[in-house]
Design a protein that fits this description.
The structure is a homodimer of 715-residue chains.
Chain A: H1 3-6, E1 10-14, H2 23-34, E2 39-43, E3 49-50, E4 53-54, E5 68-71, H3 78-87, E6 92-95, H4 105-121, E7 124-126, E8 133-135, E9 140-141, E10 150-157, H5 160-172, E11 178-183, H6 192-200, E12 207-212, H7 218-229, E13 234-238, H8 243-253, H9 260-269, E14 273-275, H10 278-290, E15 300-303, H11 306-318, H12 328-337, E16 348-349, H13 360-370, E17 377-380, H14 386-389, H15 394-412, E18 416-419, H16 428-435, E19 440-441, H17 444-463, H18 480-491, H19 499-508, E20 517-519, H20 522-529, E21 536-541, E22 554-558, H21 561-578, E23 586-591, E24 597-606, E25 610-617, H22 620-623, E26 628-632, H23 637-645, H24 664-680, E27 684-694, E28 699-701, E29 704-708
Parallel strand pairs in A: 1-2, 1-5, 5-6, 6-7, 10-11, 10-12, 12-13, 13-14, 15-16, 15-17, 17-18, 18-19
Antiparallel strand pairs in A: 3-4, 8-9, 8-11, 20-23, 21-22, 21-23, 24-25, 24-27, 25-26, 27-28, 27-29
Helix pairs in contact in A: 3-4, 6-7, 10-17, 11-17, 12-13, 13-15, 15-16, 20-21, 23-24
């Protein structure tokens, strides 16, 4: 429970100082100046009094209870201090010092010692390598950032500078403020997902804003995010996507940056609003914290000039948001109050209609939001600046409109977002909108992104029931024969299943595949092959040869006895040549598959998220176009459909150029089976079904490779 | 020549008024208040004096010369007023009124009447439907926007609100200002390209910033842009990309929004920096107006904290910009002045090294810019805010650094871009940077886009010699036989060449293709087919049947006499069934092409840009992945290479999965030939070579379709 840590009622400053340039002095002054309601205990063996407070030799000397320690001393002192904190039953410690894992081997050892001490003593750690934390409600400012605005957003940040950026932005642009700020630092003890859980349960927090460079417990994070985002939105920017960015993040917080192809869709499945441009991070959080989500993906634009409307329509269209037609009734009502030149289709352009009375904006907004096709309203242009740009007296009408707009959102439960090119000016009308929690942006691009995020969050809330919760029920549907196949390999100290074993395993769980038979000599090969109605394929079977083609261990299109026997001989010869002394178990004889559409399915264990699955079309679509999709396992049968649709080539499955289309039902079943298999046999490290041939009806897993974990689990 | 119009020394205000709310009053006051240096003549038959100036009954009554008329009266009055302007030999008129083509048929007729009058009288028109123009140098403000900052950017804008947005941004963010503002409006007379020519020749303009919704003379614009961008950068945002955006732009300025797939690459070929997010428009123009271009696509980042460096590295990597390694010497020098925890690889992180003395930023910058691998520097983080965030006295060091940085750019000819989260605060150091023309941004995203634009512009300047100038030399390499083929079709009143004619034409210009022979009956068909070494293909020949497959008019893989004759009979029967009474010229017999890689090449006449060519891989790559590229013709042999590389699938041509690759040389030659053909025969409206089969060596144009212009040119 982080309650005692983040809502601490008493704080000890370890490393308190009289030197005004030291963090140990500034931290105490910050608590005093901001009016922290709890106890403050300076700790410094050499001082009597600091900033008017009695100073303690060490934390155990304090009489009353201590919830939290802010430790400002260097890295090497930390384990010792934590021992004392443990004795004092301190709930948590914020560790400012850097110099741990981000500095390499020596730092890593020190970090491990620190974690060990923390676990032993029960003290929970924030950081190290953090800028600190702030609780805005109790005025516990342990980050040394002054004038942080209070509000409804919890900020969880893995870079002190990014926190400062977001806080500055909130201040300068008069956005919503914060409930808490947590600098996660190296995430040595308390993990991202624990903060999520805490903020989910905090009634004052309406949105959670996260800047992540890397996280160590990806799957637990997804699980908590999945629980959280249905209650309140999570807005996240993950940096370190590029190779250089990753390098930079690595030297920064010392944690591994995650692979974006896996992370982004996984985050989104957990309902997280993933942001890629840092400009959008705060405004989107602000919008989601204060405005209702849009459930029908449809928005109307209200403009007082063409340019903004056109750009806005372009951007929203890029985001896949519809600008629905307005009903005849809506259009008639708008015509009734707007000049003839006005455009009453969506985007609505008042065409000078508001020039003499900007309060008309509210009347238009009311009419538009009453339209059943419209899920929300984006006002773009000069609103809030009529009194500045034209005639001061017009400000009255704008203020009247602002009040009306503010009440409209509450009543209609449809959001209003305002873009105003006067948002940086002193405008009472815009301040009123902010008072009513209507976001005001000077950027049209950012305004559209906010609309898009309201749509995305709305869509998530609608589809929530269909989403898997990222929890494995290990061994759930394991079969005895399957366990035996794996056990046999393990007994032989193999971490690779032979092709026939792998095929047997997947067939056991319902995958359509020809297992075939292993021939020990050319006569056996022909005995098997001659029973195959069409042509045959021969493939080397050896635990030492993973890539059969590389070893010239595959022969296709074989029909006659001569062909089959010659193929057998050549395969064996090639294998011996490829790897002398290889453990050759024989040659697998299977029927040659009919032509169809080539599919690739693979699973692996991702460092951050655990088991993930990849799906895509084979050939150039995967190799050149990189048109594949990665999903964190397990996947529900429903989400298999979504997974297939995530690839651009999925339209091919529906049939093009006169083709009738392919058996998507069987494909979905196969993906489901893979998910089930990984859940059933935790011993599996990697599985490759490549190629799978998809037909108009049915499919055929032509090759299967399964690699087991090494070192084996439990050994 | 627009000189007399945009640099007018005398202005008549037609529709001058004593009513303070009228444009006809405000315009005069604006000229007076801003100190316009020329003559001002109010025109109003009912008044004697307006704003202290003598008022004239009509423009012809004025004694002195009049360069420019600002007409604020309604649409219907314009043609009459222009007649009078003509008599007075006024060089140009700015027409504010809307109510022309954007309102439909009636408005369009009025606009045409107006254009006719303008052409007859020689008066050049700006607008109609414009917010006006401003010459900041002569203080001729005819747009009614107050406090426009003067500077080095010419603003050409097709939306008054977007102009206001950009001017507001320049003011609020203390960016560079403007030389001119032109509201293009409906672009009825003076076109975008004429403004380009004017601003190219204006010595005070260092960059041209354009917001375009649609333009009527795309090709001339490209030609002027090509001449201009090598001298000064053009920065352009084209809105109306989406269907809804297009609709909105249509109702706005009444001009057709251009197809983005054609427009964007064409603009970029002409050296234009194309912007898609309106937030980036002004900052990029500001950067390009004030900083040297980056020629080696390589930048270094200097940061005072990890988060910004990581995000910046991600974004720059997305833009394809390299963050080169620093030399050993550079790293050693940095180590010499930075603390041990600092990162001296790129991104450089000072890791607290500037905390006590921010002037160190300049020393680091100096060392980094001396590195031969580095083309420019991006400083990210808190610079300019040390005095605000930490200790006021630190501002001195920041100011010292600002002076050094300013002089460094001048000396090293390498750009510096600064991201500062204190850019909205009052910081003398940041103001100093601005004084030295170093752009300062509060947005990290925008900062990176500015760097990317400097790289893009630098790359253009380097490759300028290889770019075609968008000028056709019509009929240049026409051949007599080719002209005869076209003439014959025209004589027959056909606007479609028969397949054999089309193939003859392209073969004449060197395209590898089997023209084949037309058989009139089945015996002739077999006579032709039996001479073909491999298999034959039979195809219907009829000017009435454009889509041969739809009419079941194609038979493949024919070998025997029976097959060929039967195919002939079926094709004729199918064609008669498909379109009874069709003009059937016979059946074309050609060799069956070998298998290879399917390519599509097509040309058409684009409404905005004239002839364009499309290239792409056939099959799913064009149909599903839309992996095609459109280029405005003509294309130089050099640019054919670039055109092929523009498709993502181009790697396929180099050979994958063990394939040796395809004959790119022949493909480039074929594209070149298409360009030559369109130039040689202006009668061609559309040409389709589909499919072209590409081999390891050589290629084969299997089908060709050429459609001629209709109505025919000159008739």
């Amino acid at each position: 429970m982080l309650d005692k840590v983040l809502n601490a009622r008493s704080v000890a400053i370890v490393g308190a100082s009289k030197n005004k340039t030291k963090r140990g002095f500034q931290a105490i002054k910050a608590l005093q100046n901001e009016g922290f309601e709890g106890e403050i205990y300076p700790i410094n063996p050499k001082e009597e009094m600091i900033a008017g407070l009695c100073c303690y030799k060490d934390i155990t000397q304090i009489d009353g209870p201590v919830d939290l320690a802010l430790i400002t001393t260097p890295a090497r002192t930390i384990p010792g201090i934590l021992e004392q904190c443990g004795k004092k039953k301190v709930a948590g410690a914020v560790i400012i010092a850097g110099g741990f894992r981000e500095l390499g081997t020596r730092g890593k050892a020190l970090e491990e010692e620190m974690i060990h001490t923390a676990q032993k003593t029960g003290v929970r750690l924030i950081g190290p390598n953090t800028s600190g934390i702030i609780n805005l409600k109790s005025h516990m400012n342990l980050a040394g950032i002054p004038n942080v605005p209070q509000g409804k957003i919890a900020l969880v940040c893995q870079s002190g500078n990014m926190a400062l950026t977001l806080i500055t932005e909130a201040t300068v642009r008069k956005h919503e403020g914060f409930t808490y700020y947590v600098g996660v630092g190296n995430e040595s003890d308390i993990k991202f997902h624990e903060y999520l859980e805490f903020f989910r349960n905090d009634p004052d927090t309406k949105a959670i804003l996260m800047y992540v460079e890397g996280m160590s417990e990806g799957r637990k994070f997804l699980q908590e995010a999945h629980k959280t985002s249905v209650e309140k939105p999570i807005i996240l920017l993950k940096s370190g996507r590029s190779a250089t960015g990753k390098k930079s993040a690595g030297s920064h917080t010392g944690s591994l940056a995650g692979m974006n192809e896996v992370a982004k869709p996984a985050y989104e499945r957990a309902g997280i609003i993933v942001i890629e441009n840092s400009d959008e991070l705060f405004p989107v959080a602000n919008t989601l914290a204060s405005q209702p989500a849009i459930k029908n993906n449809a928005i109307a634009i209200l403009a007082d000039g063409g340019g903004h409307a056109t750009i806005g329509a372009d951007l929203l269209s890029d985001y896949g948001i519809s600008l629905p037609e307005l009903t005849e009734q809506t259009r008639n009502k708008l015509r009734g109050i707007l000049p003839q030149a006005a455009s009453v289709v969506n985007p609505v352009d008042v065409a000078g209609g508001t020039d003499s009375d900007p309060s008309l904006f509210a009347d238009c907004a009311q009419i538009i939001l009453n339209d059943p096709n419209v899920g929300g309203l984006l006002i773009v242009g000069l609103f809030g600046g009529y009194g500045i740009r034209f005639e001061q007296s017009l400000a009255i009408g704008e203020e009247a409109a602002a009040h009306q707009l503010g009440n409209m959102v509450k009543k209609k439960k449809k959001p209003i977002i305002v873009h105003s090119l006067y948002s940086a000016y002193d405008s009472h009308a815009l301040d009123l909108l902010r008072h009513y929690n209507i976001p005001v942006h000077d950027s049209l691009d950012v305004s559209c992104k906010c609309v898009a995020s309201l749509c995305k969050y709305g869509a998530y809330l609608k589809s929530y029931h269909a989403v898997t919760n990222f929890v494995f029920n290990w061994h759930a549907r394991a079969k005895k024969t399957g366990q035996q196949i794996i056990a046999k390999a393990l007994e032989e100290n193999r971490h690779v299943l032979l092709e026939n074993e792998a095929k047997k395993l997947i067939k056991l769980h319902g995958a359509p595949t020809s297992v075939g038979h292993v021939a020990k000599n050319e006569t056996e090969a022909w005995d098997i092959a001659k029973k195959i109605p069409g042509k045959a394929v021969l493939k080397i079977v050896s635990p030492d040869i993973l890539h059969k083609s590389d070893a010239c261990g595959v022969k296709l299109n074989l029909k006659t006895e001569t062909e089959v026997k010659q193929a057998f001989r050549e395969i064996i010869k090639n294998a011996e040549h490829y790897l002398s002394g290889a453990d050759i178990r024989g040659v697998l004889v299977t029927p040659m598959a009919q032509k169809g559409l080539e599919i690739i399915i693979g699973t692996k264990v991702d460092e951050q998220f655990g088991p993930v699955i990849m799906y895509g079309l084979g050939g150039i679509m995967v190799e050149i176009m990189k048109d594949v999709t990665f999903w964190v396992l397990p996947v529900s049968p429903t989400s298999c459909k979504k997974m297939i649709e995530d690839t651009r080539s999925s339209v091919l499955l529906d049939g093009v150029r006169g083709h009738k289309g392919y058996d998507k039902k069987s494909l979905k079943k196969l993906i489901s089976m893979c998910s089930e298999l990984i859940e059933a046999y935790p011993e599996i490290e990697e599985m490759d079904l490549n190629p799978v041939i998809l037909y108009e009806e049915g499919l055929d897993v032509v090759d299967a490779r399964i690699i087991l974990k090494k070192p084996l689990p439990g050994t």
